[in-house]
Amino acid sequence: MALWQGHTPELRAQVRACAARLRDEFAAAGAQPVECPILLPAATLLDLYGEDIRARAYVTSDALRGEQMMRPDFTVPVVQMHMEGGAEPARYTYAGEVFRRQEEDEARANEYLQVGLEIFDGSDPAAADAEVFARVQSATSRLLLRAATGDMGILMAAVDGLDTSAARKAALHRHIWRPRRFRSLLDRFAGRAAPVPSRVALLEASDPFANAGTEVGLRRRAEVEARIEALRADAATPPISDREIDLIDTLLDVKETLPFAIERLRDIAVDMPSIADAVETVARRAKALEARGVDITSLEFEVAYGRHQMEYYDGFVFGFYDVSRPYLPPVASGGRYDALTRVLGRQSGRPEGIPAVGGVIRPGLMVELGESA
What we know:
- This protein is of the alpha+beta class.
- It has a domain at about 165-240.
- It has 14 helices and 12 strands.
- It has helices spanning about 10-30, 40-50, 75-85, 125-140, 150-160, 165-175, 180-190, 195-205, 220-235, 240-250, 260-270, 275-290, 340-345, 365-370, and strands spanning about 30-35, 40, 60, 65-70, 90-100, 110-120, 145-150, 255, 300, 315-320, 330-335, 355-360.
- The longest helix has 20 residues, at about 10-30.
- The protein starts with 8 loop residues before the first helix and ends in a 5-residue tail after the last helix.
- This is Histidine--tRNA ligase.
- GO terms for molecular function: glycosyltransferase activity; histidine-tRNA ligase activity.
- It comes from Pseudooceanicola atlanticus.
- Keywords: Glycosyltransferase, Transferase.
């Protein structure tokens, strides 16, 4: 369903007016309004998300510029713009269409308006997190919405602390945003999953290339040999202990109001010290949210929150959902993406990146839920 499919001119005008109001609110709070291109180089998005992005983005080709993708969100182009010369600290706001393929759910729009606020400021990350959350909450306060929060940094820290190889940790990190794949890797690395027979046969063969036939495809023999050696090294790595797997499971089960979640996380950190700093980051953010007037006693916090759709966030994550229609996508969402600024910063000669956090709102959903301009 496209953005304006079935919409009357009056409804279109209402959505546009709502978007303008939201952007103006962010601008009045000190954010600089910016425009971003609709067509983005596909190579940049593929480097960030891998081939999976093709299933969600509209791809086209240009004879001069090569493969392009229609803008799936604003965060990537805003980060690129900032890393190429923006002063710090900086705040940006924007409003415009984004485009997402919806092959499994016809009810969801494949083109819709998005309004956002992005803050680039490393002086006090907890305060910046709280500011974005509070401003998005205020901008959507006319609606009855449920807020959910989490922090991707906790699970990342837990993976970093596992007593296993760097290669296994890297594999787990890559799939933190794919819960099923993450679980299957955990089970395999813990020795809980039966080995794949074809892989066992390959590793036991004295000459894996004996019956390989003619070399075809893009991968050269040296690359295949390196992959086989990596598989052999992994097979020789001791399994992750049951104790560590159980602690990961306990961590992923944490779903409480924020104050109680912090208490539980501190208890878990006694047995899993690698998460201690990440837990204290959550505690500092809680104080900053409270200072912004957010009622943290009723604010939901879930360690596993954001793992299905927030793949470039590496810290604080949040979303706002309609209470009466939980099947709808989030009316607003956002989070911290420090790692993204480092990745995109390398392209502009600033590999150190800069701490950054942002939030986006869908004015079309706000109007659908009864919001007026």
